[in-house]
Amino acid sequence: MVTPGSSPLGRWARRRLRLPTVAIPLLDQGIVSAGTFLFNVLLARAIPLGDYGHFAIVISVLSLMQTSCASLIFYPLSVRGAAANTAGSKDLIASVMLMTPLLIGPLAALLSGLVWWLVDPKLLLPTFAILVSSQIQEVMRRGLLTQFRYVSAIPGDALSYVGQAAVLGLLSRHFAMTLPVALWIMAATSLLGAATQRAQLSLKGSARLPMRPMIADFWSIGHWSLTTNGLNIARTMCLPWLLTAMAGPAAAGAFQIGMNLVNVVNPIVSGVCNVVPQIASRAMRYGYRAAWSASWPSIGVGLPLVAGFMAILLIAPSQILGLVYGTRVDVALLLIPVRILAVGSLFYYIASTVCAYLLGVLRGRDALMADGVTTLAMTLMGPVFVAVFGIDGACAALVLTFALRAGVLLVYAFIRVRSDRVQSPIATREHQERPA
Known about the structure:
Strand content: under 5%
Low-confidence stretches: 1-20, 422-436
Number of strands: 0
Mean pLDDT: 80
Shape: globular
Largest sheet: none
């Protein structure tokens, strides 16, 4: 019998999946998240807290829209592209560029209704511009990532995300900043990043794939991810909506300020989650156990980083709040929320990376079951916790759902790994063909 350590798979996993596998994706995602974090901090300093609460709601609505593209287009592209040869990958990317506008149209209509109803009609046009420009850029970015060209994606991401913070900081020093202007800055820098990354894509000789079969294939893969990610975002983003309804937009703004600090872990989470589905998909030919063995080194890289960040926020929340926001925030009001959210960051990392593994092995149904349970929990807890405890309650409800989701997903991953009691046919055949 071939053990994991002596099999071709074991040697392949150890050789391929070391720190460099995720180092460049982490660097790229770090640039994305650093730019987003700086933009959020600068905006919180530049506009009234009530307007910043409106910004939090706009971002929540945009996240729901962007999740649809990520689940139905970019996730299937990553899975199929990772398993395809160079020519097949180019054909996929070129075809996805044509597919994306088909989805943006209905999303734009839904976005319009939500922004009109939940926020302010004056923000409709710049919010629409962000949706379109950000998805154009994400198509180009994902094309590079599908070709494993993580380094090539960095300049465009820097122009888009760091660029938006730089432009906001420059303009806010000389002019009175408003929320609509800030949203237009986000849209403009996204288009700049998209143009840069499109120039880097190598699609010469690519052919357009038949659209209808590709849409059906992407839907068969992505609809589980769509439901899972939609529920995940809705669980988080319902909290600023509840706070706005029960305590006003300033409370939602304060909640978003606390989330901004914890979102510093997003480059780690997103960087690892961008890699794990592709790794798991490639290793799945050997079974669930092999896919987990291949994915675990990448997941393990981020654990000490997230844990260290959590410890810093637990020990010195007031110092960090003062350093980042100065006198713009009520530090005493946010001490408990920041500490609660710091603990949640570890559960969030575990849940996100294990979910990425399950999606990589095409077990979206398992992920959906976990998200169904946690969404039900948030439906029961969220309104009660917010009504009774305000911002503290919102943070507590969020962290409890993170912990529940992590636990359920780990159970499902364990079940899948344990189901590989017999070697996969491919691994068995390769072992039999080896010379004695």
